[in-house]
């Protein structure tokens, strides 16, 4: 009888040892994933047992039950997160659990470019292959209402930047994020504004910044241009800036501005109307906003592009006309 008991204990020990070795081998053996890695989608509501079964069927995992019970033993089964994950080559079953629990999903990027108008923003969002689209047929007013900002003009309201997001992000969520970022940036910049700025509200600062954004892409020229516009606003002079005329023309603009366009009475024609246009004309970046709220000091009231991406500034109309003849009319 004692020999039989000893034999049973021996066989049980051997079986336990065999199982333990297999268990350790399983945990340390890399999964079968492609050389470029495996994109693993875990939908909301999927539990680990279901996921492990799916991966076993796909040949990625050797033993789904073993992974499941391992996770149960270490209280990990209920800690996995939903999302889209990249499983790199060499990942072990234990490493897979670490990825799923950490919840570090695949990051996608979409850039909103400084100087874009809202139509271009919507087009970029609608063309993005990862975002979930719910706004495709909506007009701008309806889009703003859907975002939770009814009655607010969308132009210039979204901060230009590169946004990182996981799959499953909606176009609504993406745009709300860009909107709130612009609100924060503008609020911070307004609180730090120069004491004698010409604009009276943060929204006026946004409008002026949008004009500065469209007038130049040269960093050192933004504050000088903002200075010219600020002095004109304080003196009650017309801004006379072409980008506002172009914006008012809409789709009619084909690359050239005629004299008749400068005389056309649109809401955005700053050759006709004194002061700022009613809304921004594009999305200004951080530098343009800072320039609008920290304009460079000086006496210049005019500027003209010199053909090299920069501008020539003049204090008087006579000097400005000479610069126009030199840099514009000859070309």
Characterise this structure:
The longest helix is centred in the N-terminal third of the chain and has 27 residues, at 2-28. The radius of gyration is 31 Å and the shape is elongated. A hairpin with a 5-residue loop joins strand 5 (302-305) and strand 6. The chain has helices at 2-28, 48-57, 64-73, 93-102, 118-127, 140-147, 171-191, 202-215, 219-235, 242-249, 259-263, 286-293, 317-329, and strands spanning 38-42, 83-87, 108-111, 162-165, 302-305, 311-314. The chain is mainly alpha-helical and 331 residues long. The protein is built from 13 helices and six strands. Residues 10-19 have low confidence and may be disordered.
Secondary-structure map with pairings?
Layout (H helix, E strand, L loop, with lengths): L1 H27 L9 E5 L5 H10 L6 H10 L9 E5 L5 H10 L5 E4 L6 H10 L12 H8 L14 E4 L5 H21 L10 H14 L3 H17 L6 H8 L9 H5 L22 H8 L8 E4 L5 E4 L2 H13 L2
How far apart lie the N and C ends?
Answer: 111 Å
| Percentage of residues in DSSP E strands | 5-15%
Give a count of the beta strands, DSSP E runs of length 2 or more. Answer: 6
Radius of gyration equals: 31 Å
**Strand order in the sheet with the most strands:** 1-2
- The low-pLDDT segments are 10-19
Helix run count: 13
Element string (H = helix, E = strand)? HEHHEHEHHEHHHHHHEEH
Structural class: mainly alpha
Task: Tell me which oligomeric state these chains represent.
Answer: single chain
Helix content: 40-55%
Shape: elongated
What integer is the average pLDDT?
90
> Main sheet, how many strands, which sense, barrel?
2 strands, antiparallel
């Amino acid at each position: 009888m004692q020999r039989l008991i000893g034999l049973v204990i021996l066989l049980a020990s051997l079986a336990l040892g065999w199982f333990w070795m297999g268990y350790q081998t399983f945990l340390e053996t890399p999964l079968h994933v492609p050389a470029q890695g495996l994109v693993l989608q875990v939908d909301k509501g999927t539990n680990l047992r279901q996921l492990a079964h799916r991966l076993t069927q796909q040949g990625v995992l050797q033993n789904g039950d073993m992974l499941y019970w391992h996770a149960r033993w270490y209280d990990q089964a209920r800690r996995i997160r939903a999302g889209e994950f990249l499983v790199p080559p060499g990942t072990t079953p234990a490493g897979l659990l670490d990825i799923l629990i950490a919840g570090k999903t695949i990051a996608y990027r979409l850039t909103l470019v400084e100087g874009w108008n809202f139509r271009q923003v919507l087009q970029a969002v609608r063309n993005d292959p990862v975002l979930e689209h719910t706004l495709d047929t909506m007009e701008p007013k309806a889009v703003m209402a859907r975002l939770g900002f009814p009655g607010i003009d969308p132009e210039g309201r979204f901060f230009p930047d590169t946004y990182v997001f996981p799959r499953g992000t909606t176009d609504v969520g993406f745009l709300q994020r860009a909107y709130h970022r612009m609100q924060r940036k503008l609020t911070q910049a307004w609180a730090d504004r120069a004491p004698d700025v010409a604009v009276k509200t943060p929204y006026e600062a946004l409008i002026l910044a949008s004009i500065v954004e469209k007038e130049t892409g040269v960093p050192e020229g933004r504050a000088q241009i903002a200075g010219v516009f600020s002095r004109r606003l304080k003196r009650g002079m017309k801004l006379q800036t072409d980008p506002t005329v172009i914006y008012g023309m809409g789709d009619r603009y084909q690359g050239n501005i005629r004299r008749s366009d400068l005389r056309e009475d649109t809401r955005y024609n700053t050759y006709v109307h004194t002061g700022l246009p009613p809304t921004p004309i594009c999305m200004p970046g951080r530098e343009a906003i800072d320039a609008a709220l920290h304009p460079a000091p000086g006496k210049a009231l005019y500027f003209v592009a010199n053909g090299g991406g920069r501008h020539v500034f003049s204090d008087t109309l006579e000097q400005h006309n000479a610069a126009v003849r030199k840099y514009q009319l000859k070309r």
